[in-house]
Structures are given as C-alpha cells and as structure tokens.
Amino acid sequence: MPTKGSDPLTIIAGGGSVPVYVARAAARLGRPVQIVGLVGEAERGIEEFPHEWLKWGEIGRLESILAAHGTRDIVLVGGIHSRPDFSTVKVDFGTLRVLPEVLKLLAAGDSDLLSGVVQMLAKRGYRVVGAHEVAGDLVAGPGPIGGRTADRGAKRDVERAMRAAQAIGAIDAGQAAVAVNGRIVALEAAEGTDGMLERVAALRAAGRLKWNGRAGVLAKCAKPQQDLRVDMPTIGPRTVEAAARIGLAGIAIETGRVMIVDREEVVRRADAEGIFVTGEAPLAESGA
C-alpha cells in the first residue's frame, strides 16, 4: 500500500531507473521529494527532481541535506556496484564521528550491512521506507502481468518452482528456482538468478536438459528474513530475455515481495517473446 501524506521524502539513490520512478510516485502523492545521488552510482536522470550529489565519506553533509529538507522518511534504492573503501575515501567530520560504526557495518555480510544501515538511521531519528511503500506498482499483485497466461502444465511448474524457491530462501541459500515438466532443474545459489539461468542454458546446450518448444518456469521469492525496505529481490527486462533465451514458458514472482524493474518493458518483452509473467501468493508449507 503506497504511503500518503505531505511529509518530505528523501531518496538516496544508487544506479538504475527505480529512484526516479519512486520520486515520481511520491510527487503524485503530494510529497515534497528530493534525491541524493551517490556519485559514481546514480544516473543523471535524478536531476529531474530537486537533488544533491553525494560522495562516499560525506555523512556529515548528508545530515545537513536531510535537515535542510525537513526529512524524516528516507528511501534507499538503486544498484551499488562496489562497497566504499574508507581507508582511501576522503571523509568529512560527520563521517569521522561515526567511522567506527561504519567500518563495523562494512565488515558484515550484505544482509547485516543493510539492516545495520537501517538501525543506524533509526538511532538518528529517521525512518527507512521501502520503495514499494511509495510506489505500490513496483511489486506484483496476484495473477498475470501482461497478456500471457500459464496453461495447466505451466501451473504445475509454477507451484513446484515456487515451493523450491521458498524452501531455499528459508535456509538463506537463494531466491529462485526453475522447474520444467514437473521437475526441479535448478536452484539459485551464490551465482544469483542470472547465473542460475546461464547454468540451465549450459545444461540444455550439453543435452543434459531436454524439452520441446517453450516449457518450464522461473520462480522468484523473497527470503523470510529479508528486510524488504532495503533488500527486495528483483526481476527486469534482462530476466525476461534470459528466460526466453533458454526456452522457458514463464516467470512467477511472489506477490508484494519481488520488485519489477521497468514494468512496462518487462510486459512488452514478455508478450513479444510469448512468455507469461505472473504474481503468485506464497504457498503454504506442505509435506508434498
């Protein structure tokens, strides 16, 4: 459900189109919005809105920017290519004050880093809001997204792949799975969704996996322990291209808990390739 009201919102932006998409949604809700773009990560498109550019190491300047805007609500969104190295980054006085805390966070794993950032902001009186809480159509509702729907056989693969993706998420191993003709053929691990799909493509090219025409489903779900405000799984046009390239019939994503990056392009490419994209509610646990 999108957040409403007139409270100022600051979006701290990494790469990609989503920061601007969220800013437009906030503006439609009547919220004063500014974007703080991370130098080397955010795109020039953020300049459509009131904005500032921020370098790693300028935490003190960030606090001044937030205060000037009257911000309490913050969205953290967009891709980050690499973690900052504070041994080489020039830092301001505000950063020096919290540097031990920052270095401790950077030594943690990705999920602990993100939850630590949320906690650090909360201690300073800020509230981290999920991008999907501002722009509700970033996530899927139940049912088809686009013009294609799953047939009976594909629905069986949807259920198998969704159940497998949920299972590996529960043990913090991955977020995605592929089922073809009722059989699980791939589970996501450290290589990520794109890498898993490349593995399926290699197995098919080697003759280890065989099917005719389009068959099979990629399912993607959030892990139960993920903080979706800052760490939401995504699909986008590249996901559709990869699924179509290896001959899958469709993609299923967990409703409300997987972000669709560039929805219009996702729908356009899926419809053009003849594959379905559907939102699916999490499956109840079963011994089956």
Structural write-up:
The protein is an alpha/beta fold and 288 residues long. It has two domains: 9-134, Rossmann fold; 139-280, 3-Layer(aba) Sandwich (Cytidine Deaminase, domain 2). Helices cover 37% and strands 18% of the residues. The protein is built from nine helices and 13 strands. The strands form three sheets. A six-stranded mixed β-sheet has the order 6-13-11-9-7-8. Strand 1 (9-13), helix 1 and strand 2 (33-38) form a beta-alpha-beta unit. Helix 7 (192-205) packs parallel to helix 8 and helix 8 (237-245) runs parallel beside helix 9. The chain is elongated.
What is this structure's SSE topology?
Layout: E1 9-13, H1 18-28, E2 33-38, E3 51-54, H2 59-69, E4 73-77, H3 93-106, H4 110-123, E5 127-128, H5 131-134, E6 143-144, H6 152-170, E7 176-180, E8 183-187, H7 192-205, E9 217-220, E10 234-235, H8 237-245, E11 250-254, E12 259-260, H9 263-273, E13 276-280
Parallel strand pairs: 1-2, 1-4, 2-3, 4-5, 9-11, 10-12, 11-13
Antiparallel strand pairs: 6-13, 7-8, 7-9
